[in-house]
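To whoever is covering the structure queue this week,

Two jobs came back overnight. Logging them here so there's a record in the thread.

Job A:
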Amino acid sequence: QVPTPSIKTHSHITPREASFTTCLFMRVYVYIYIHTYIYPIPITTSPNFLLSLRRSLPSSMATSSTSSLRTISSSVKLPTATNTTSPAQKLTPFKLSNPFLSQNLRLTATAAAATPTRISFTCKSQSNSSDSSRPTKVQELHVYEINERDRGSPAYLRLSQKSVNSLGDLVPFSNKIYSGCLQKRLGITAGICVLIRNVPEKNGDVYEAIYSFYFGDYGHIAVQGAYLTHQDTYLAVTGGTGIFEGVYGSVKLQQIVFPFKLRYTFYLKGIPDLPEELLDTPVHPSPTVEPAPAAKACEPGATLPNFTD
């Protein structure tokens, strides 16, 4: 039967000496493991290391430590260099008989493979798998925006404090919107324009516009982009709610009578088919176009359900 390695203690050993002994045995234990399983060496060379550790001990611990080291050395058999083990080994814990070292010591040594490790990876598109199921059909929606001068819109905030329109001036606004056939009240627009540049040669301005179209119970569409007062422009459809959730596309803005009459043609993608109530044959844009009296008066049947006002 193989004797269990232990340390013969003496009553005069101080806590400092006990701590040193702990560190010593940890070094010996790790050394034996490494040169047994990871980098084996001939057995004739291992005692040299133990002798070097013997010289580093305090004189008060020389005798007890030497006998203990011999016990450990004689009880360990070093295998040949052909022994193969797994890269990581967990050693069996052993108990120290010293009263200052009553806890079990468990050492785990991990060795990296000697040969270089090849790491392969693949790049996967970040597009959601559900994107493939999104409708790509383009649907047109026609809307008229009419400023009836009853909402205090637009409000021109001349932050530049200059007599002419200048960079930084703000224009919050909110107007009524009607169907393309002008027979039904749809809701309102609400948003803000930031003046980017005045174009005196064209008697116009360039704004960055951020606003929404509200369609009552159907939800809303958000748009953003350049708004030119002197020519037609395209803005981006950035999203929506209700039946317009997940929508994207663009919208063409046509100036009819600035800033009182505008026509929008939406090119919507990413949503199910629009309800028939929103599909109609648009009226050709002209300065004389007007909403139907019933729609203007918001009579029953001439508005969307719970239209936004």
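Job B:
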Amino acid sequence: MAVSAGRSVLKEASSRVNRDRSNPLKMIENRIGYAGLESELSIYDTYENSHKVGLDSDGITLCGMLTGKKVVHCDDEAFDFLPQQSFVMSPNQHIDIDFPLAQQQAPTTCLTINLSQARIQQICDQLNLKNKPSIDMGEWHYRDDDHLHMDLSLPTQSLLERLVALYSENSDERDFMIELGISELTVRMLQQQGRNFLLQQLDHDPELTGLHRALQHLELYLDLPLDMEELQKLACMSRSKFFQRFKLQLGCTPAEYQMQRRIEVAAAKLKRGMSVTQASIESGFM
């Protein structure tokens, strides 16, 4: 499923993208690029097994895996980077990459989108103006100490497909449509950082705010059916206010969050060697 999702991004690309990729100038990290007004899309293909290939970012860079597999070495740790996942590099960050599966007939492919820090700050300012900063999070801002490595949600996957198509077309509305897509992508990135920050706060003070209490309840009882009445009571909010605050800060509904966390917990249990049946039961799927 992950591989087909990555290929769908390329399938949605214009014939121009596929034509540009068809004549690589080098075998490792062959790049084609397309510029927007305040951003740039690059697609990299690697056609041979290679190790410790360095990559430096001069700005905030979102990386999305399309096909194959990378092993990313970042800040003294290593992780597998797979299709339907993304990773965000901060300005002046260095990583090393292994390409264990790359080959001539099945290249390892990823995309990067370089984002303008000024544009990200502008979006943060707009969010802070539109939504009064909450005690949970403070003001919206980009956290350059949070190197996001995450699975892509279906809406974000669809957004990347649209952006690849937009960057490579020549319509009069191209730049305007790209900026709309980049704004949406930035908001999703900020929401994911906010979610990570909230979860880190849970470890230190699960009673910090009503939203923290509701999140802690969700974490403790992932295996039980969602109880919205209990969650809004813990948050000390009306149902509509709780739903609105939750979706703004975490980028998803409580039900979507519960499902995402169940999948994450089940995957961790399977990785530790637990049986599929037991992992499913303990994660709330049975």
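Note for Job B: The chain has a mean pLDDT of 85.

Please reply-all if you pick these up so we don't duplicate work.
Q.
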